[in-house]
Amino acid sequence: MTTVNVSRPTDYELLLVGQALQVEGTAAGGGGVEPSQVQTVTVVVDGAPMPAKVGILPGHSPPTVQFTATVSFPELIGLHYVVVDGA
User: Residue 47 sits in which domain range?
Assistant: First the structure.
């Protein structure tokens, strides 16, 4: 099972309309006898998916990666949803 922690943006962070959104965090793969590493992280803003850049964080158990993505934020005022998925 993959565990994803998003450090940026924070919950309910206010953004300017049309501003680029920086999404950052970590994703850990499964531990145990046969640990699994996260290979990809996808960031979705209001339904539009984008792959994140992924880098291995050495010395972590279970295997952990750091991810970052800059996405174009919709030019609509209101609540928007950011979803991050690791696989």
Answer: 3-10+19-73
Structure tokens at 73: 């934020």
User: What is the spatial order of strands in the sheet that 48-51 belongs to?
Assistant: 48-51, 41-45, 82-86
Predicted structure pTM score: 0.87
As a whole number of angstroms, the distance between CA 60 and CA 22 comes to 24
Amino acid at position 58, single letter: P
Asked if residue 82 belongs to a domain, the reply is no
Q: What is the pLDDT of residue 28?
A: 94
- Integer CA distances (angstroms), 50 to 11, 59, 82, 85, 86, in order: 20, 28, 11, 11, 12
Residue 84: inside a domain, yes or no? no
